[in-house]
Specification:
Order of helices and strands: HEEEEEEEEEHHHHHHHHH
Number of helices: 10
Shape: globular
Structural class: alpha+beta
Distance between the termini: 44 Å
Number of strands: 9
Number of domains: 2
Strand content: 15-25%
Helix content: 40-55%
Radius of gyration: 19 Å
């Protein structure tokens, strides 16, 4: 699967002049429900078609942007976007986690439910490499009042570095197992607000549910369900500090179907009720 993303990025780099507009997402306004918001950077490149998103722009307005082939959306850590997925498009997403980089290529036909092509892969990375400095530079650039042409060069540098990470000798079984585990972690962190289950995750990665449980427990020293709960509670803590949302809305946005269950789990994991935690940590 790495060859697919290596070749795709190679094509993008060879056609660098076709990277036109670069959109940046922000986070000062409360995001709409079902937005994607995680604590790591994301890069989305439109390969073909039309890709609609709701984002917060530099002027702190919530707007709809329409990206076409050759246009890019960069989402810094804890900023958000909300894809519409109501038109035909193919989009390459690169997710820059602390320990892994995830690659996802999704293709959608207008008026058809679901995606007709989904390809995913992930590779491990380490802190202290050039990747961290490139991301830091882009995140700083996103805050500048006047974004100049340097943003395109940094995006190309980011793509080039991702391609270099993909160009590695064929990975052994142990390494592939670790990459799969890291890919699952990225997937959970990105989709915690969705009704994800062991079965749905296994299906997404084309493995059995039992294999997923064994793999995750072996690699992560924690059950998959416990990891999902940890990610959701961690995001709930962020929302309690950042936004003046009602508790039942935070519960829903973090993937808990039942608000009372959310209250019990939050108290069990943190030692505080959500209201107590908000009183201690609220930033607004």
């Amino acid at each position: 699967m790495s060859d697919t993303f290596y070749n795709l990025i190679d094509t993008l780099l060879s056609e660098a002049e076709e990277i036109d507009n670069i959109f940046f997402a922000y986070d000062t306004q409360t995001p709409p429900q079902f937005s994607y918001q995680v604590n790591f950077s994301r890069l989305e490149l439109v390969i073909s078609g039309t890709y609609k998103n709701i984002i917060e722009d530099k002027q702190k307005n919530i707007v709809e942007v329409i990206l076409h082939a050759g246009e890019v959306l960069y989402i810094p850590p804890n900023c958000w976007n909300k894809p519409a997925w109501d038109s035909s498009c193919s989009v390459l997403s690169i997710l820059f986690g602390k320990r892994q980089v995830g690659f996802s290529l999704v293709s959608k036909n207008k008026n058809e439910k679901g995606f007709y092509d989904v390809q995913k892969d992930s590779i491990q990375t380490r802190v202290g490499h050039s990747l961290d400095y490139i991301l830091a530079a882009i995140n700083i650039l996103a805050k500048e009042k006047n974004i100049q042409s340097i943003d395109k060069h940094l995006i190309l540098a980011l793509l080039s570095y991702c391609q270099s990470m993909l160009f590695t000798p064929k990975r052994d079984v142990k390494k592939r197992s670790e990459d799969l585990y890291q890919g699952i972690c990225v997937y959970v962190q990105e989709n915690f607000h969705q009704p994800i289950t062991r079965s749905s995750i296994a299906k997404n990665f084309n493995i059995s549910a039992n294999h997923l449980s064994r793999l995750f427990k072996k690699q992560g020293y924690i059950t998959l369900i416990d990891y999902i709960v940890w990610v959701r509670i961690d995001r709930a803590k962020f929302m309690l500090k950042k936004y003046s949302l009602r508790l039942n809305e935070i519960s829903t946005r973090c993937g808990f179907k039942d608000a009372n269950y959310f209250l019990r789990v939050f108290k069990n994991k943190t030692g505080y009720t959500p209201s107590e935690y908000r009183s201690l940590h609220h930033l607004i």
